[in-house]
Each structure stands twice: as C-alpha cells, then as structure tokens.
Design brief:
Order of helices and strands: EEEHEHEHHHHHHHHEEHHH
Helix content: 40-55%
Largest sheet: 5 strands, mixed
Strand content: 5-15%
Radius of gyration: 26 Å
Strand order of the largest sheet: 3-2-1-4-5
Distance between the termini: 16 Å
Shape: globular
Number of helices: 13
Length: about 350
C-alpha cells in the first residue's frame, strides 16, 4: 500500500474498528466532515469479517479501515481485509481523546479510531504476515522459555543456599551450570527426613525444568536462524547482528515502505533524541524512553558487540572519549547511527520480497 498522509484525499469514508476477543465494533465516518454514517458490531469470526465488508459495501467503495490492534485482537480482520486488497491503517497506539464524564463504549471507540486516522499526519500500515509473523511467534516462545529457565535456575541456587548441609556439600565450589547438572541427577535415599526429601525433590524438578526450557529455547533459536537466513541473510552479515537481534529488527520493520524514513525508524526504536530547547538554548535534548523497547534492546546489543570487536567502532569511541563524551553518551550516538544503517540496508536491499 502506498504511503498515505491524508486519507481525505483518497477515500470517501473511513471505517474505525474497535477490536475485542469475541466481537468487533465498527463505525463508518465520512472523510470530509467526520460525521458518523452508521455503526455495527459483529462476531470476531470469518463470518463476522465478511459481514463487516458487506456493511462497508452498503456505504462506499472508496474507503479505508482504521483498526486498533492489528497484531492482536484485530489480526484476523486485518488478514481478511489484506486478502481483499483493502486499505488498512494501523492504530496500535491510539491517542485516546479525553472522555467527558468518563464516556466509553465500543462504538464510541470505533468512532474515535476513525477520526484519529483522519487527523494523523502520518499513517502506518499493519505489520506483514509470513516470515515476519513466524519470527514474531518464535521470538515470543523463546523469550518465555529463556525467562522461565532463568527463574528455575535462580530458584535452584536459592534452595541450595538453604539446603541441609549433607545436600549443600554436593554443590560446594561449583558454578551455576554445574549446580543445575548435579541437581538434575539427585536421587532420593531412604531414611531422609521430610525436609531433606522435599528439598532434593524440588531441586531435581527445578533443574530438569531449567534444562528442558534451555533446550526448547535453543530449538526456537535454530528455527529463527533458518527463517532469517532464507529471508534476509544480508542482515546477519552486519557486525554485531546475530539471529535473535536480526529477527527482532525484522519484526519491527516488517516490510519496505511501512516506516517512511530512517528518522521514523530511529524514533520507533527509541534512539532519536527528543529536543528539549528553551529560550535561546537550541542544542538541548533528552533521552527518548518511548518506542519499541525490544528493538531498542537489539540496537544496544549491536553497539556493545561492535565496541568490543569492531575496529571502526572502537576508533570512534576513542575519538569521542577524547572530545569529552561519556560512555553512555557515546553509546546513544552509536545506537542512532546503527539505526540509520540498518534501516537503509533493509529498505534498499535488491530482494525485498516478504514471504
């Protein structure tokens, strides 16, 4: 879909949709006046999506859809509309209007979504499916497995600290990985008191859980690597970019043209400095704590890797240090540069087809 800046130039109506698990509420708003023409609520099913399209056909052919949560509750509807080549505007982070007396309802939210799409200076399209969606679900599953494994390992360490001495002796002098292996091989012995028996049982269970989750995370990472290699292997060739970082970047970027500039990509990543000028002071900026924090973390990982292993980056750090910049300020600058380079690579690669 081409980049849009003003829906009123290309459509007669905008259809705002407030999405929920079981139902979707839609409101048709006239593009020229902002007036509400009609409203409907349907079930969040294939039949419901078809009914929404029929509902839209009753009012106008030149139309666009403004949907909240195209990556969540509205994913099914967004896919249905994409298959029909409808214009869909993404409103994942709507700027909620002030509600007089706390007024709120699904139809009202649908109207607000439509009017907000009409008022926005820049409009975003939904993230793509295919490879991007596959990476998204694998990253989520891996992230969950890594977190759960880390929690289990911490619990093993805590239990060992407070374990009866005869159990604690087996772990003395070992690092955490070795402690997990030892705990997974513990055997229950006859004659133990209830405290020792319970401690050993818990240690073995937690250790085996941590091992299983670690193996699961490794399998997810292997699948992620295969998709990234088949889709954008050029990204893996960049210094400091591994499969998890590459997948995170691709999930945020999605497809060519979705993010209109490298400055917008930097803002999405939370690495674009925010002006904080006052009076005659025009060089003051503050830290941007907004945007996609997973993408921000991925860029931070790239920067840390390049500082350690990339000669050009190390030379840059040395030069900026002599100029009086702090390590934190240097990293912020590097993250902005990395965002620019990654965006240009993604947008101008000769093979930009998204599966």
């Amino acid at each position: 879909m081409p980049s849009l800046t003003d829906l009123r130039e290309v459509v007669d109506v905008i259809i705002g949709v407030d999405t929920h698990v079981h139902t979707h509420s839609a409101a048709i708003v006239e593009a020229g006046t902002g007036g509400v023409l009609d409203e409907i609520t349907v079930e969040a099913t294939a039949d419901g999506y078809a009914r929404l399209v029929e509902f839209a056909d009753e009012h106008a052919v030149l139309r666009a859809w403004a949907i909240e949560g195209t990556g969540g509750h509205g994913a099914g509807l967004a896919r249905h509309l994409a298959s029909r080549e409808e214009i869909v505007v993404e409103l994942d982070r709507p700027e909620r209007a002030h509600r007089r007396n706390g007024a709120k309802s699904d139809p009202l939210d649908a109207v607000r979504a439509a009017r907000e799409a009409l008022s926005r200076a820049r409009l975003g399209t939904p993230r793509g499916g295919g490879d991007r969606q596959a990476l998204s679900v694998l990253l989520a599953a891996r992230r969950s497995a890594v977190q759960a494994s880390t929690d289990a390992q911490r619990q093993v360490f805590s239990l060992v600290i407070a374990a009866p001495e005869q159990i604690r002796d087996r772990f003395r002098g070992h690092k955490l990985p070795a402690m997990i292996l030892i705990a997974s091989r513990l055997r229950v012995q006859a004659g133990w008191d209830v405290e020792t028996l319970s401690t050993v049982t818990a240690l073995r269970s937690l250790a085996r859980r941590a091992q299983a989750l670690t193996q699961e995370a490794a399998e997810h990472e292997k699948a992620i690597l295969a998709i990234v290699r088949s889709w954008r292997p050029d990204l893996l060739a960049q210094p400091g970019v591994g499969p998890i970082v590459a997948a995170t970047v691709l999930c945020a970027w999605s497809h060519p043209g979705r993010i209109h500039s490298e400055a917008a990509f930097a803002m999405l990543a939370g690495v674009a400095p925010i002006p904080a000028n006052s009076g005659q002071v025009t060089t003051r900026h503050r830290l941007n704590r907004y945007g996609d924090r997973q993408l921000n973390r991925a860029l931070h990982t790239i920067v840390l890797s390049r500082i350690r292993h990339h000669d050009n980056t190390r030379e840059y750090v040395t030069r900026r240090t002599t100029e009086g910049k702090t390590p934190r300020e240097i990293k912020r600058c590097l993250k902005r540069y990395v965002a620019r380079d990654i965006y240009r690579l993604l947008e101008h690669h000769p093979d930009q087809a998204n599966a």
